[in-house]
Amino acid sequence: MKMKLKKIVCPFLCLMLLCGCSHVSFKKKNNPNQEVGESIQEMGFRDHSVYSILYPKTGIDELDNMIKTIVNDGHKAFDEKTQAYKEKRKAEYNVSYESYLKDERYLSIRLDIYESIYDNHEEVKTLVYDSKESRFLSLKDICHGDYLHALSKQAQAYFKERFPKECDQKNFQLYTSPAEENFASFVLKKDRIVFYFAPKRLFDNAASMEIMYSDFKDYLDFSPETTSAYVPYDQVLNENVKPVDPNKPMVALTFDDGPSPKYTARILDALKENNASATFFVLGSNAQNAPDLLQRMVLEGNEIGNHTYSHKQLTTLSKEGIEEEIKETKECIYTITHTYPQVLRPPYGSKNDTVVKCADDARVVTWSLDTRDWKDRDAKIVVERILKDVKDGDIILMHDLYASSAQAAAIAIPKLQEMGFQLVTVSQLYETKGM
Ligand code: ZN
Question: What is the CA(281)–ligand 1 centre distance, in A?
Fold first, then answer.
């Protein structure tokens, strides 16, 4: 059975036009899966564990503190659990998020928390916040009457229609019963409420149920207003490919984990000034927030590579899980740039045969020169590391997440050219070198 939470993915990129006056100011975005909040990203790589944390900062203190508490408590618990962990396969803590605005008043945050130590464990935590009354909401705050019985009936019908065979299990009956805790995990979108059910509850896998407000209006306290308008992107991009001289030395600069609103543009500026190209291995979750940066990358002759959707260690996932992580980002890049990525870099460089198979047409790429810029946030050290070790054909690993990395790129780009290196994309490097 295939049932996934991540199915609510943007089929196309939209602009949300919101009407009405705002009660408080919070940061809104043009990303249909992350409508609110500035993305905060933290990454780390240790001997026996890795972590990648992405959460929103909305500008509403009470909500932001709650989000940080959940994320940090989870991280602390993970650190404690992995103190004695010494396996070869790295343990992992991963957080990603989605955020929704029902309207100017109600904000919903969904945190996806994934932990892989000896086993994989995933959970969804939701927060629904009323910005007018400055308080968190549970279901009973927005519903009245016998809404639990109505939900129970709806859930039974909803899943029996979709997964008739799986609905006979005892757990299914138990976890669709009219109890508040069965329906405690939900978000409010523009026109619908979405409930989440953890894995090993209704079914082995996680599941979700959507109910339109208009179909549930007898039990809801607010009116089912819909105020969104969708404006799809349809700009056609012409790729600007710079010529490569196969007889001269060349290297490929690569930037992972972005794009980031602050630093990616600075790197693009430095590349443009020096007529150089690079490859950006973007995360789907970040790419959706920065369509302008992705378009700029392509227009200025850079390459966009796939770095998965939420930066999970692919080797800990099932085949379906790997496919989902890759496909979501691939489609997202295509939606924005009308080009499919030709290269894939698995997070932490961790790959196996299944990852290579799931990459499909894209080439799986790691690196040959690691600048360790995520560890040493010092432009001078990073530049020295590049210039000291660089050789023809190198793929250089950096991250467009840090000020020091952007600064290092701005220094290293002209220096590398002075040393006689052409700065090319990863695909150009492979094609020219016949690798
Ligand atoms: Zn990465």
Answer: 8
69 C-beta neighbours (distance < 10 Å), count:
10
Question: Could you read off the pLDDT of 127-165 as tens digits, one per residue?
Answer: 999 998 999 999 999 999 999 999 999 999 999 999 888
Choose among 37, 41, 66: nearest CA to 52. 41
| DSSP string covering 291-332 | HHHHHHHHHTT-EEEE--SS---GGGS-HHHHHHHHHHHHHH
d(CA 270, CA 94): 32
Decide if 226 contacts 151 (C-beta within 8 A).
no
pLDDT tens-place string over residues 227-276: 333 333 333 344 456 789 999 999 999 999 999 988 999 999 999 999 99
Q: Provide the residues around ligand 1 (an ion) whose CB is within 5 A.
A: 256-257, 347
Rounded Cα distance, 158 and 203, in Å:
14
C-alpha 348 – ligand 1 centre gap (Å) = 6
CA dihedral angle for residue 305, residue 307, residue 108, residue 115, rounded to 10 degrees: 180
Residues of the chain with pLDDT under 70: 1-25, 223-241
Distance CA 408, CA 376 (A): 11
308 CA from centroid of ligand 1 (Å): 9
**How far is residue 389's CA from residue 63's CA, in Å, rounded to a whole number?**
46
Residues annotated catalytic, as ranges: 256, 399
Would you call 126 helix, strand, or coil by DSSP? strand
- Residue 195 CA to ligand 1 center (angstroms) comes to 31
Do 421 and 253 meet the contact criterion of CB atoms below 8 Å apart? no
pLDDT score of 231: 31
Q: What are the tokens at 350?
A: 């961790």
**182 C-alpha to ligand 1 centroid (Å):** 35
Distance CA 210, CA 196 (A): 9
Q: Is 63 exposed, middle or buried (0-12, 13-18, 19+ CB in 10 A)?
A: buried
CB atoms within 10 A of CB 40: 15
Does the model's pTM come out above 0.70?
Answer: yes
Measure 217 CA to ligand 1 centroid, in angstroms.
Answer: 44
Decide: 424 and 249 in contact? Cβ < 8 Å.
Answer: no
Residue 311 backbone class (left: φ over 0; alpha: ψ -120 to 50; beta: rest) = left
Burial 266-288, CB ≥16 within 10 A → b, else e: bbbebbeeeebbbbbbbbbbbbb
Positive or negative, the Cα torsion across 321, 322, 327, 333? positive
| Exposed/middle/buried for residue 377 (C-beta within 10 Å: 0-12, 13-18, 19+) | middle
